[in-house]
Fold these 3 entries.
Entry 1:
Amino acid sequence: MKATAALALCGLLILAAPCMAGAANAAEVDLTKGRLFQSGTYSIQTMGALNKSGRTIDFLEVECGFFLKGQLIRPGGGAAQNVQPGQTAYFDVRSSDTSNADSTECRVGGATPKDNVEAPRQSSAPPSWDQTLATRAVTMALLTAVAIDLSRASGKPPKGLFGRDGDGIRRGH
């Protein structure tokens, strides 16, 4: 089971590597929290994000935890686009069902520099269609291998993966 889990983890890291390539370092972004306020069932944390890197950040994602008396209620997220070097972007981070939140803790969730964005492809198919199919196939194969290993360890087949009898044979209704 450990070998399959390690294989699955390695496979997912390989699949995620292109998404992380060239990401701006979180240390290159200074976050400043503004006012925390409530609107209906939402809590809204106003934010400022200073781009200290030498590159334009095409997409900046910020994640916040919304707390009540030190206890995490829910996470929330917000984003800014096209943040030039030396520029501060201002935006809101929102979370639903947190109208009683009294504090937040925030971090940079991801920052993609402008030079990491792919140029549009000249094709009739959607961009990266083949990559999407390959990624889904590999991910499903890895998840299936992990599910089979877990079922062998527990002696019970995972629900929804095998037939009703757990032998992998699908039968009519």
Entry 2:
Amino acid sequence: MAQGEDQIRAWDRIGRAMGDAGELGQAIAARNLDAWTTIASNLRKGSYTTDDAVKDAGRWTTAFFDNMRDAWAVFAPPPAQAPGSVALGPPIVFRRQANLWECNSPPDVAVTANATASPHVRVIGSPSDTAKELEKFLVPRHQEGCIQFTTRGDAPKNGGTFLALITSESEDRVIVLAALPVIFV
């Protein structure tokens, strides 16, 4: 193959990636605008009930996870290159007890990918300071095809909407073993 053809294919790949990223940005912007327009409309009405707040929280959480799914679809490696499938685990639920958030028992998650290194937690979401607190609080360990959690220290002081990615790092790549929504109720 001629060097000119390689360059054309490389620029085509870059163009496709930029186009995909642009479409992703437009989809996320439209989804967020729709969610916030509905939430703002609910806030402006005469009475804002607990049911309205719960529905709006669900609306925003759904938009957040749809955004994460779409971003994953654009930026994840094609299935032929992926090292293993990512397990979507059950949610990690924090409940309000007095003035503190408590997480009684983080779930165990079955994984199919082979992890060679100790797993780590990477938390995506807002607010970012709570995401950092969650990364310190949740301690995963890989044992016989399963990720088990223990907790360390105090639970985060504030709630939010998050996605916990359980990763394992090797010398040349990071493998995502599982993804779990983190819910504050």
Entry 3:
Amino acid sequence: MTKPAMKATRSIAIAAVIGLGSLSGASIVAAPAVAARSAAPPTVFQVSVSSSLHKLTSTTGHHLKASVSAASFTSGPDYVDIVLDTPTLAESHTWDVPVPGAALTVSSTGSGTLKVPATKLSPYGVIALKITPTGPSRTMMCRGQLASKSRPVALAGKFLFNTHSHGTHKWGSVGSRHVKFSTATITWTYQGASSCGSTIAPCMYGISFDLQQHGVELSGTEAGRTGTLAGRRSVLLSRPKGASRSDSATGGAKITLKIAHSNNATMKVVGTRHAAGSAVLRSTAPGGVGQSCGPADTPVESWNSGFSNGSPVLKLREQIFGAIHARAARTQAYFTKVAR
């Protein structure tokens, strides 16, 4: 499970086509669970559980969707994530908490518990869920070796969480002593699975941008007439020790890209639908081909650029913890274009 903390370095990307693409050199095949054909049993590197979204109503009357996930490693603390979303998923908040000792205890069959006592989750609440298998296991093989095994489970028991949110629309607390996440998955990841190889998506056509600075990320994509703006903010919490919170939001955007005869370019972003304000990204030098994407190695033309907010600033609205926005960045940035 990936921790939500963001990189501190700043970067901005705008893309007329963001491309990632090539085929992995290794194939992964799903099959019914079978015993590993090796002299020694494979070594488990990580055990994780992740639930689907469960509808809850907060103490302040907000209808929300909640999920919980946890990961246990061979060394270091366990990590537990609590996620709360609005019904449309336009706003999401994730609390990531390291738990000294064992929070997730699972047998080889998938039965177990997820327990985070109040002393380790303070001041947010308590989790005490029983894990029960609901279906057969399946394995993932890579280069003839066992990479991972998963099994559907259900989580049931005590789930009490106080968001400690502020603002006009604060969410209050959610959960009860009898909450059931009816759909969840236990996954065992085995040593060496990370060397199995990775897949890269093909070129995605459209125009897009990305900005990262000081724990805030803003990104947007427009394909055809549909524009989307997304934002994420990472905040370190004073308690529990080492915990963090990630605030995310999505909205609409109108994104335009203009390329001059000099091959300099300008992108303008205007927020719509849960977003507001505007921003401009201007190239600082003529663009050129510096990379490629997709299985055909399609050339990607890119430009260095800067970022400046309009008036009002480009931002995504949130019900709690304030809007997500970025300051003007006078640092190196870039945007790209890929022609079909």
